Automatic annotation (TrEMBL):
Residues 258-271 have a biased composition (Low complexity). This is Proteasome subunit alpha type. Its main location: cytoplasm. The lineage of its organism: Eukaryota, Fungi, Dikarya, Basidiomycota, Agaricomycotina. Residues 6-28 form the Proteasome alpha-type subunits domain. It comes from Agaricus bisporus var. burnettii (strain JB137-S8 / ATCC MYA-4627 / FGSC 10392) (White button mushroom). Belongs to the peptidase T1A family. It holds the Pfam family Proteasome. It is found in: Cytoplasm; Nucleus. GO terms for cellular component: cytoplasm; nucleus; proteasome core complex, alpha-subunit complex. Keywords: Cytoplasm, Nucleus, Proteasome.
């Protein structure tokens, strides 16, 4: 099998200036199931497609709570995601213990980006094979960041990562101007539409393969829980059914009844009009 001369170690540049091990890690993110993130002025939302290895297996976890004000959705190796999510929790806990305040979201993302970048420049390590979408809320408002194994991180209005994520990006690029003033329900509906674009043709979104992560004031669909108002929470199974029904209802409005003809026997009786409704 052909093997690239410069891909055996992540500290060696190819003549074209590329680090092949880092590019392989980025490909691992593209192989993971899709995740979509979008934000408004008051809320930030994550939506993820869960996979199952078989009929006897449960669906994998795609979202992790980091703190009351931050959460992530992953695409790639779940084992690497657990390591990085635990590191993020430690950073959030340290900020509370040392400074008595929640860590700013941009500093949290910068911390894992710095940690991942170290693995691209030290011999004997490999890059993390997972990408994150990070949402959070702090003094400067709602935030959405993308983190990649190369150590790069960017802030977005809306973003998608994972398999067939380009289809979701196309939808988000068409509608992102509507997100800033959108309600939470509309934000989730747009996210579900974008996530559905990443599905194979014979698949559909349902309560088993979809996860929704929210941060911001609670909606009318959510029940009051033990978490603080506005804290990050994950909706799964029956909790997301109202949002799936809303998406279908707004997508397929009931067809108007055809107007009765002024001529012919069908216009004379009221029974035919009732049958057409």
């Amino acid at each position: 099998m052909f093997r690239n001369t410069y891909d055996s170690d992540n500290t060696v540049f190819s003549p074209q200036g590329r680090l092949h091990q880092v590019e392989y890690a980025l490909e691992a993110v593209k192989q993971g199931s899709a995740a979509v993130g979008l934000k408004s002025k008051t809320h930030a939302v994550l939506l993820a497609l869960k996979r199952s290895t078989g009929e006897l297996a449960s669906y994998q976890q795609k979202m992790f709570r980091i703190d009351d004000h931050a959460g992530i959705a992953i695409a790639g190796l779940t084992s690497d995601a657990r390591v990085l999510s635990n590191f993020m929790r430690q950073q959030a806990m340290s900020s509370k213990m040392l400074f008595n305040r929640a860590i700013p979201v941009n500093r949290l993302v910068s911390a894992i980006a710095d940690k991942a970048q170290v693995n691209t420049q030290e011999y004997g390590r490999r890059p993390y094979g997972v990408g994150f979408l990070v949402i959070g809320y702090d003094e400067s408002g709602s935030h959405l960041y993308e983190f990649s194994p190369s150590g790069n991180s960017y802030e977005y209005f809306a973003m998608s990562i994972g398999a067939r994520s380009q289809s979701a990006k196309t939808y988000l690029e068409k509608h992102y101007e509507e997100f800033a003033d959108a309600s939470l329900e509309d934000l989730i509906r747009h996210g579900l539409h974008a996530l559905r674009e990443t599905l194979q043709q014979d698949k559909e979104l349902n309560v088993n393969n979809t996860s929704i992560g929210l941060i911001g004031p609670r909606s009318e669909h959510e029940k009051k829980g033990v978490q603080p108002e506005g804290a990050f929470r994950i909706l799964e199974n029956e909790a997301i059914e109202p949002f799936l029904k809303t998406m279908v209802a707004k997508e397929d409005p009931p067809a108007p009844a055809p107007a009765a003809s002024s001529s012919g026997p069908a216009a004379s009786g009221s029974g035919d009009v009732q049958m057409s409704g």
